[in-house]
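Suppose a classmate hands you a notebook page containing two proteins, each written out with its sequence and a corresponding row of structure tokens. How would you begin to make sense of it? This section walks through that situation. The first entry is reproduced here exactly as it would appear on such a page.
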Amino acid sequence: MSTANDRPSWLPPLPPPHRGRALIRVGLVLVIATFIYIFVMGYLGGTHTLLTLVPLATGLICLIVGLTRQNEDR
């Protein structure tokens, strides 16, 4: 191994290559699962409360944060 291939110590560390990908996946799962639940309950004639919007809002927040973290490095 050559010393020319090592990173100099004064350079900041590299960020992980897939920043925000986990948040994007969690957000997509929450949003899709919430919509499936809403559609199934609507088809079956059941009711759902406003608490149904909590996982939807959480999923959207995860998606937004994940996408902004992913785009910070570009």
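The notebook's second entry, a different protein, reads as follows.
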Amino acid sequence: MHELISTIQVLTALIGAFATFFAVLHKSHHEDYADKFKTLEKERDNLAEDYENERKKRKELEEKYEKLKKKLEDTV
């Protein structure tokens, strides 16, 4: 019985050591996240700008289409 309790204590200590190791490892790479966030924000801004440009083009094309459609209807 004593061996079982000792084994459980050792396993618990190992799990605690791994958890501490991963927590320290995660915190040490925290500065990398700032650069990643900046990159993602730039990509988001670029995508938003591209979307707005495409939206303007689509609206212009829809207006031209409507004008041509009206012209066609008037000639028929």
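A careful reader of the second entry would note: The mean pLDDT is 89.
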